[in-house]
Amino acid sequence: xxxxxxxxxxxxRMVILADTVKGNSEKTVxxxxxxxxxxxxxxxxxxLGRAKANWIVTVGKPNTGTVESPGAGxxxxxxxxxxxxxxxxxxxxxxxxxxxxxxxYIKRLNDGYSRKRPEGMLDGAIQAALQQFRKARLFNGx
Length: 142
What we know:
Elements: H1 2-43, H2 50-53, E1 56-59, H3 72-88, E2 97-100, H4 106-110, H5 121-135
Antiparallel strand pairs: 1-2
C-alpha cells in the first residue's frame, strides 16, 4: 500500500515538474526572441527607416513579404511593437519564432555597407539570444 501511494505522489510531482519546465522553457524562448529582435532592430542603420520597419516576427513560418516604413522616426518603435506582440503569444509546439527581413539590401547592411553602423547586426542579435539561453533556469520554482 505504501508503495503505490509513493508512486502516486511521485507521478504527481513529475507532472508538476514537467509543467514547470514547460513554462520556464516558453519564457526562455520568449526572452531570447525578444533580445534578438530588440538587438537586430536597434542595430539596423536608419536612412528612411525601411530596413528597421521590415524586421518582422512570425511564429510557425517566416514572413515572405515587406512593409512600408512609417518614417525614420517611427520605424523602430513599430518593428519592436510588432515583435513584442507576436512573441508574447508564443507557446511551445506552435513552431519556431522567425525574425525576418526580406529587403534585397539587408545582407549588405549586415556586411557593413552603411557608414552609420559597422558590420555584424545579426551576430549581435544571435549573441543576445544565446545569453538568454545561458541564463535560463528551467527548474526554477520547483
